[in-house]
UniProtKB/TrEMBL annotation:
Belongs to the protein kinase superfamily. Ser/Thr protein kinase family. PROSITE patterns: BULB_LECTIN, PAN, PROTEIN_KINASE_ATP, PROTEIN_KINASE_DOM, PROTEIN_KINASE_ST. CDD domains: B_lectin (cd00028), PAN_AP_plant (cd01098), STKc_IRAK (cd14066). It catalyses: L-threonyl-[protein] + ATP = O-phospho-L-threonyl-[protein] + ADP + H(+); L-seryl-[protein] + ATP = O-phospho-L-seryl-[protein] + ADP + H(+). GO terms for cellular component: membrane. This is Receptor-like serine/threonine-protein kinase. It is an enzyme of class 2 (transferase). It is found in: Membrane. InterPro entries: Bulb-type_lectin_dom, Bulb-type_lectin_dom_sf, Kinase-like_dom_sf, Pan_app, Prot_kinase_dom, Protein_kinase_ATP_BS, S_locus_glycoprot_dom, Ser/Thr_kinase_AS. Residues 347-437 form the Apple domain.
């Protein structure tokens, strides 16, 4: 029986249902085609099959596909005629040879299952059934076990639970999952995920079918070495990841214990393979997995003349002198189309002699871009100097850029794989000279001197006429500016939360030109009153709150005062998207800037300890001292700001939803940042203040080490369970390493090397102990923030925390049911009634992405 074939009994039941409910289109059979807006719906109503028109597709382009039937966002998971769109007058029917086929309006076959039906007694008796797994199955009505064809064997861009991406060892055929060509075009794109054709137990991401740009690493029997978050399941985990390798085939498959879980694994048009969960409360897809994590590692991910900047919120930008070829696609995050020139090159005019009558037309010029990773398809040219190299490029109309580092390299036509922000000592880094039309560069002259003369005369005539008007306007504006400044200065200081006009904040921020940061809720700009009082203005984006609700919540939050909470000075709510918040300005920026970006100032241990204590006090105030408990929902270094004396201020707490003290209620919106999210966000448990405690604990590890949690760890060897006895190096997840070192009494080795061991050992022990308790899987075992404050102040102490068992399982090392007591080295049995292999419900990526 083919993989994933439908059991005989179930298939017969479906056929019976189809006969009784023929009008509901349960099956496609001879004489019962599918056309127009008709749909084939799976028995449980989870999936639907029919004609659809993708968003952004050309008019009149229709495709036969499978999508989620009960989800509000139309999300295709399989497409039949990927490369051949049809009109909406087409029909899906059983062809005379027994295959399922798509017929266009003229009756020609556009797509067919092309299955062998020679063994079927009556080919016209075959039927097609859509299962609740999302698998479309073709089989004889008289013999359900003889599956002739199924969509799970022909995955397009989406890998659903129960499907398998396989390598047929007998034929050598490899099943690939190919991205869409563009957001509105389901034709196979440049990127694909497939099994390693060499036979190695790993999956590869390929560009154009040839270039490997990411690999999972070999399967150890428990996880992939290059993707440890994709691990085999353990009891009670809620998911099941399984790798199968036999004489016939090799494949990987996954399933979820809870049938209501909606998850899809997609080869995205961005070149990343992504995992998405559907969150019913927010009516949206939540991204929980993406590889490669380095967005710029994707070949041609930004298209022609697109520049990738790692860590940028937009991922891709056009090089200077260029604009997106399709602004609509760029707005949807599809950058493959790349960028086009604002002004065409002069080309042949660059080498024209004076006799051509265009001697006043300027040659193309070159923009020097430093810190650029040079494209890898440059051609070496014979040029002894940089000037010779430039002239060689100008002499060829197809030359787009050059670089000279003792040797001359030229690039022709479109430039791909440009990456900005590369250090000079990194491989392939250097200065790129990008060819642009002269008018695109500063100081460029007009192309025709006659136009300059005409413009000069016109300007001279009009100057006298408009001079008086300009003087009058300046006088009026100056008067208004002084009055506005005087009025705003009266609002700059005070305890009340001030309601500002949108035009006032435009004035303070110089029309939002000085951007100092950005986050999930919007961008932050620097503003300044005329008396030199500096503020930070946050321009909120994507809020769904109504005017009345927004003002009520902001007014409440404006009354909250604590030395470790950022002070809200005012707000603006002029309707629509004009919602802004005004805060105290923090001159030393956010904590992540000093921890991860290695500024010239290294935070001392004394400062770091005060930050941990201050943040704990701020969170304790939000949880316990406010009239209504406020759960921050996004505690991370980016949301901890430092004042002039490096005192910590918790920011963005005002954007978390206010909840009452009935902690049994579940928040209706998933919030936070991957890498800091508590397990209960994914598992569906109630969200309480202990979610902030978990995030705080994850942040403590980073304060100690000065690096993101996944970026460090000790190297160790793992022996494959597949009995091949090969050693595969992997990296220990840092929080797990801390828990082990704490039990061994060796926490000082975990300190940020930048501090050169200059730290208080007792304080280090306290911080590590608190962090390990904060990230426990069991919500009840995590301390409250008030308890954390007492421990950090040395007023109380905590017992030695157990090594977090679910982290052990995720990393791939078994837990032996032991913990360490703080006062002795004896091992204690794991608490009764609690599983040793306790894991996070299908949320492994939460602990590996930073």
């Amino acid at each position: 029986m083919a993989a994933g074939a439908l059991p005989l009994g179930a298939f017969v039941v479906l056929l019976c249902v189809g006969v009784v409910r023929a009008a509901d289109a349960d099956i496609v059979a001879a004489g019962r085609p599918l056309s127009g807006d008709q749909k084939l719906v799976s028995p449980g109503g989870k999936f639907a099959l029919g004609l659809f028109h993708p968003d952004g597709a050309a008019d009149g382009s229709w495709y036969v596909g499978i999508w989620y039937h009960k989800i509000s966002v139309h999300t295709p998971v399989w497409v039949a005629n990927r490369e051949t769109p049809v009109s909406n007058t087409s029909r899906l029917a059983i062809a005379p040879d027994g295959n399922l086929a798509l017929f266009d309006g003229a009756g020609s076959i556009v797509w067919s299952t092309n299955a062998s039906t020679s063994g079927v007694a009556n080919a016209s008796d075959t039927v097609a059934v859509l299962l609740d797994s999302g698998n479309l199955v073709l089989a004889p009505a008289s013999n359900a076990s003889a599956v002739l064809w199924q969509s799970f064997d022909h995955i397009t861009d989406t890998w659903l639970p129960g499907g398998k991406l396989r390598r047929d060892k007998r034929t050598g055929a490899i099943q690939a999952m190919a991205s869409w060509r563009a957001r509105g075009d389901p034709a196979p794109g440049m990127y694909a995920l497939q099994f390693d054709p060499s036979g190695a137990k790993q999956y590869l991401l390929l560009w154009n079918g040839t270039r490997v740009y990411w690999a999972t690493g070999n399967w150890t029997g428990k996880y992939f070495t290059g993707a440890p978050e994709v691990a085999a399941s353990s009891g009670g985990s809620g998911y099941s990841f399984n790798f199968v390798d036999n004489d016939d085939e090799s494949y990987f498959t996954y399933n979820f214990a809870v049938n209501s879980t909606v998850y899809r694994f997609v080869m995205d048009v961005s070149g990343q393979v992504k995992g998405w969960f559907w969150v019913e409360a927010t009516q949206g897809w939540n991204l929980v997995y993406a590889e490669p994590k380095a967005r710029c590692a994707v070949p041609r991910g930004c298209g022609a003349f697109g520049v990738c900047t790692e860590g940028s919120s937009t991922a891709c930008d056009c090089a200077r002198g260029f604009n997106p070829q399709s602004p609509t696609s760029w707005g949807l995050g599809d950058y493959i189309g790349g960028c086009v020139r604002n002004t065409q090159l002069q080309c042949s005019k660059n080498s024209s002699g004076p006799s051509d009558g265009l001697k006043n037309v300027e040659q193309d010029k070159f923009l020097r871009i430093d810190g650029m990773r040079l494209p890898d398809d440059g051609r070496m040219a014979g040029a002894a100097t940089s000037g010779d190299c430039q002239r060689a490029c100008l002499g060829n109309c197809t030359c787009s850029a050059y670089a000279y580092n003792g040797s001359c390299f030229l690039w022709h036509n479109d430039l791909f794989n440009l990456q900005n922000g590369v250090l000079d000592d990194q491989a392939g880094a250097g200065s790129l000279y990008l060819r642009l039309a002269a008018s695109e560069l500063p100081g460029a002259r007009s192309h025709v001197w006659r136009d300059i003369k005409v413009a000069t005369v016109a300007l001279g005539v009009t100057c006298f006429v408009i001079a008086a008007a300009i003087l009058l306007v300046c006088t009026i504006r100056g008067t208004m500016k002084r009055r506005r400044a005087t009025r705003l200065n009266g609002l700059a200081v005070g305890d009340a939360c001030v309601s500002y006009k949108y035009s006032d904040l435009q004035f303070l921020t110089k029309n939002f030109t000085d951007k100092i940061g950005a986050g999930a809720f919007g961008s932050v700009f620097k503003g300044q009153f005329s008396d030199n009082t500096v503020v930070a203005v946050k321009k909120l984006e994507g809020l769904r709150q109504g005017e009345k609700q927004f003002r009520a919540e902001v007014s409440t939050l404006g009354t909250i005062q604590h030395v470790n909470l950022i002070r809200m000075l005012g707000f603006c709510s002029d309707g629509g998207d004009r919602k802004l918040l005004v805060y105290d300005y923090m001159p030393n920026g956010s904590l992540d800037r000093h921890l991860f970006r290695k500024t010239f100032y290294v935070l001392s241990w004394q400062v770091r300890y005060q930050v941990t204590l201050g943040v704990a006090k701020g969170l304790a105030y939000l949880h316990d001292k406010c009239r209504d408990c406020i759960i921050h929902c996004d505690v991370k270094p980016e949301n901890i700001l430092l004042d002039a004396s490096f005192g910590p201020k918790v920011a963005d707490f005002g954007l978390a939803k206010l909840v009452g003290r009935d902690f049994s209620r579940v928040l209706t919106t998933m919030r936070g940042t991957v890498g800091y999210l508590a397990p209960e966000w994914i598992s569906g448990e109630a969200i309480t203040a202990k979610a902030d405690v978990f995030s705080y604990g994850m942040m403590l590890f980073e304060i100690v080490s000065g690096r993101r949690n996944i970026e460090q760890g000790e190297r160790r060897s793992v022996v494959s369970a597949a009995a091949d006895a090969e050693e595969h190096p992997t990296t220990t997840f840092f929080p797990l390493l801390v828990a082990r070192k704490l039990a061994e009494g060796d926490v000082m080795t975990l300190l940020d090397p930048e501090l050169e061991g200059d730290a208080n050992a007792e304080e280090m022990r306290r911080v590590c102990k608190v962090a390990c308790w904060c990230i426990q899987r069991d919500v009840d075992t995590r301390p409250a923030m008030g308890e954390v404050v007492q421990v950090l102040e040395g007023l109380t102490d905590l017992e030695m925390p157990p090594v977090p068992q679910y982290l052990e399982v995720l990393i791939g090392r078994p837990v032996h049911g032991t913990a360490y007591h703080s006062d002795s080295a004896e091992q204690l049995e794991a608490p009764a009634g609690r599983p040793v292999h306790e894991t996070v419900y299908h949320s492994t990526e939460q602990f590996f992405r930073s």
